[in-house]
């Protein structure tokens, strides 16, 4: 495991790494998750083997530190991931971002184009103020202290065992602030940033999620949108073959 200081208090962002050829692939997880849990089985597939791969846990999540005075906005997370990549000596990486991790990857590609050569976004948040059925909206609907003291424990009992397994390793205050930051979105909003990027861009949409809003506009500006059959939000678990093909660029 490797680590880097990402704030003035000496807090560390941490990641695990598999050596291999450049450009590196950097896997960024979603809200209340961990990178290796969601992506290590993908990076180990034969069609992706041999490439340097980094599995980054964002602040407040997984193995990374949980500073109580950190903002946990999309910009904050993007900054911390950039620090990790700078420390690792990574440039022109392929960023594979899931859900909130996709939103963070978009912000990072906008802020630090030197670090990113390609985006593979899985069910990434593109717009602010998602519907109330979205996980980030459900969490952000609480006041911070109410969520930390009461709602976090209740949520662990209701989200299902898969998500609960990683959510319980997420600091509740970091989870709430990250959800609020995701709900508010970036400025300009993530969709606008994505449309303006010049790097190779692929967006994976699980078939069960329905049609991607604004798909025609995204495709018109060069974003490759792929609807993955037999998959919901967690495409990497529901259809790992299709997910790996998209990461490899062969889908």
TrEMBL record:
It comes from the Bacteria. One of its GO terms (molecular function) is hydrolase activity. SUPFAM superfamilies: alpha/beta-Hydrolases (SSF53474). Keywords: Hydrolase. Residues 26-173 form the AB hydrolase-1 domain. Gene3D superfamilies: alpha/beta hydrolase. This is Alpha/beta hydrolase. It comes from Streptomyces achromogenes. The lineage of its organism: Bacteria, Bacillati, Actinomycetota, Actinomycetes, Kitasatosporales.
């Amino acid at each position: 495991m490797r680590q880097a200081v990402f704030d003035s208090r000496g807090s560390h962002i941490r990641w695990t790494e598999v050596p291999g050829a450049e450009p590196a692939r950097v896997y960024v997880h979603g809200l209340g998750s961990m990178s290796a849990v969601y992506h290590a089985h993908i990076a180990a597939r034969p069609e992706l083997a041999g490439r340097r791969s980094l599995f980054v846990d964002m602040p407040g999540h997984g193995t990374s530190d949980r500073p109580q005075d950190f903002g946990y906005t999309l910009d904050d997370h993007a900054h911390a991931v950039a620090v990790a990549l700078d420390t690792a000596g990574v440039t022109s990486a392929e960023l594979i971002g899931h859900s909130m991790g996709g939103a963070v990857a978009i912000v990072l590609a906008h802020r630090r184009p030197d670090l990113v050569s390609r985006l593979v976004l899985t069910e990434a948040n593109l717009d602010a103020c998602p519907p109330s059925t979205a996980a980030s909206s459900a969490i952000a609907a609480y006041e911070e202290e109410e969520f930390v003291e009461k709602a976090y424990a209740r949520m662990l009992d209701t989200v299902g065992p898969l998500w609960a397994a990683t959510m319980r390793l997420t600091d509740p205050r970091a989870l709430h602030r990250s959800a609020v930051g995701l709900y508010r979105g970036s400025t300009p909003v993530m969709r606008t940033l994505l449309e303006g990027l010049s790097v190779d861009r692929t967006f994976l949409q699980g078939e069960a999620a329905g049609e991607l809003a604004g798909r025609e506009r995204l495709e018109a500006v060069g974003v490759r949108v792929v609807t993955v059959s037999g998959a919901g939000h967690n495409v990497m678990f529901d259809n790992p073959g299709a997910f790996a093909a998209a990461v490899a660029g062969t889908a």
